[in-house]
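Lecture notes, unit on protein representations.

Consider one protein chain, 191 amino acids long.
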Amino acid sequence: MEKKFLADLVEIQSGYQARGKIHESPDGSHRLLQAKDIDGGTPHWDIAITFNPDLKPDRYRISHNDILFIARGYENKAILAKNPPDNILASNIFYIIKPQKINPGFLAWYLNQRSAQAYFAQFQVKSGYVYMSKKNLSKLEVTILEDEMQVKIAEVLALWEHEKKLTSEIYTLKEQIVTSTLVSAIQKEEG
């Protein structure tokens, strides 16, 4: 297995940095994904604010199979963008990683693994403003597996994410059934 610097495998783009305060606009032309719109590693595109960018938006647009890397804070997580809506931009808390010579699903998984996280941790200051620089991110050494193995890892990860989503939906439905049954029982007793 060989190792390559992340910079040799991807293009890294900073997220949208407004010139001033971003003003939400119901009639806005674009949406802006922020950290608060990510829940458990899942981006919730539909709750991102709508606004009118004051900079050319194309370079900040999130595309299918881009990786959103949280650059600020103590958790530098990677999120694989699956089928984002048109005209959604990443805020400046993210780097937009565009894989070119590596499987996107594999790379997103790799960036969240212990070895990569340990690399990121060495650059974190324990007080004050914490930010992963593009320079340090670019120098991460990535272990390159055969293409077939990268695809298998990406497929397993996608299936695992799908299972977690279904399990959550089942739990929510069971909770609704139990609540409905108990409310019905109380209403029968009262009636």
